[in-house]
Please model this.
Amino acid sequence: MNAGPITLAIVGTGNRGRDTYGRWCLRHPDQARVVAVADIDPARRNTLATEHGIVPEAAFDDWRMLIDADRMANAIVIATPDREHAAATIAALQAGYDVILEKPIAPTAQEVHAVGEAAVHSTGTVTVAHVLRYTPFFSTVKRLLEGGSVSWSRSSTRSASATGTSRTASCAATGAMRRSRAR
Model:
């Protein structure tokens, strides 16, 4: 059964908000659609709203107004400046939204823990977009895999954090990486 595309509200229309998530949605309208936006910069906010056909009533100059409004989307993308990540994410979780949160979670450990606590007590979920594909380690793994020097292996561990949330960490080809450095 196809329930249709997921609907998103984008908070922050800079590089990640507009260029990454917004453009992905435009290329994949059968999977996701942007239906609301919040940004303090009217030009950027209006550009994203126009690109996605967002009605003026769903374009906000403050993320608090978007979250306080009647629910407009399945999930919220938090792509604000880092210093606003925790407050916006906590408010969205308290409103029951699922959240896609750009890295870092927050600038301080205290705020990171507060986001974790909010997630534990929310009906919504939080997913942190922490992509490392361009770091030297992963670039080397990709080169080794593509060159046939190593093959995929996978291990997985599950751990619980101090906030009671659990996570699964996976690692591919790490043994091969250590061997390649020793050569």
Summary: Strands lie at 6-11, 32-38, 59-60, 75-78, 98-102, 126-129, 154-160, 166-172. The mean pLDDT is 83.
